[in-house]
Amino acid sequence: MPAPQPAPPAVPDDRPTEPVVLRDPRAIKALAHPARLAVIDELFAGRRLTATECGEIAGLSASAMSYHLRALEKWGIVRRSEATTDGRERPWEAAGRGLIVDSAEPRASSAGEAVLVARQLDRERADILGWISNRDEAASWYDSTVISSGMYWLTSDETKQLSEDISALVGRVPRRSADQAPPGARRVRVSFSVVPVPAGSGPQPEQTDRPQADGARPPAG
After folding, report:
1. Phi, psi (deg, nearest 5) at residue 43
2. Inside any domain, residue 81
3. Which residue in 29, 46, 133, 208 is a FRET match for 143, CA 20 to 30 A apart?
């Protein structure tokens, strides 16, 4: 029986507590790349990874991945970690507790945001379909899975409040890295969208002179 290996040196938990907020359209465009999104998921899940490890995730060489990591570092999305376990290559880590896109120039960043959202939705779609097609998991995990969608008539203020309420609820969930996860835990993707439906793609409220309560749907014609 092989002798037990010594545990690696403890890594201090100095992870950032504030989210990274992207407002510059150029930063949003820089993020919208498949290789970068692949490692963003891992780094913002709390992992610290070397360029070699990131390259393995994204299917790139370490040198090619280093280029992408430096591009993300330029916009404050990732950073070099001070903690190392072997004293050699310094790993990379997320520069914030989460990632928020809040463009200061919506028109200028719309194309980049569209690409970013499309690629992120592709990743979520793959995860969801992969989960649904796997019937070998314990029933308890299926019982805890929810995929829901609905349409509501809301004012802009009500829509903003809904987004803030959901964000606050998700914000109370502990953000753990793999080394902090309790026994039996697994990675769970949590995503939501609160998006107005484009005008003309469905029934529109009738314009009347009668006062109505905020958010109430007009009576059917």
Report:
1. -70, -40
2. yes
3. 46
Least Cα distance to 15 among 42, 38, 41, 44 occurs for 44
Name which residue leads in pLDDT, 154 or 134.
Answer: 154
Task: Give yes or no for a contact between 198 and 186, defined as CB atoms under 8 angstroms apart.
Answer: no
CATH code, domain with 64:
1.10.10.10
Within its chain, how far is the Cα of 208 from the centroid? 41
Burial of 129-138, coded b for 16+ CB within 10 Å and e otherwise, reads eeeeeeeeee
The predicted pLDDT at position 95 comes to: 92
Q: Map residue 143 onto helix, strand or coil.
A: helix
What amino acid occupies position 217? R
* Distance, CA of 54 to CA of 42 (rounded, Å): 9
Number of domains in the chain: 1
- Tell me the C-alpha distance between 58 and 52, whole Å: 10
What percent of the chain is helix, strand and coil (3-state, nearest 5)? 40, 5, 55
Least reliable range by pLDDT among 23-27, 148-152, 174-178 = 174-178
Whole-structure pTM value? 0.62
Structural domain harbouring 110: 15-126
107 or 56: which leads in pLDDT: 56
Residue 205 is predicted with a pLDDT of 65
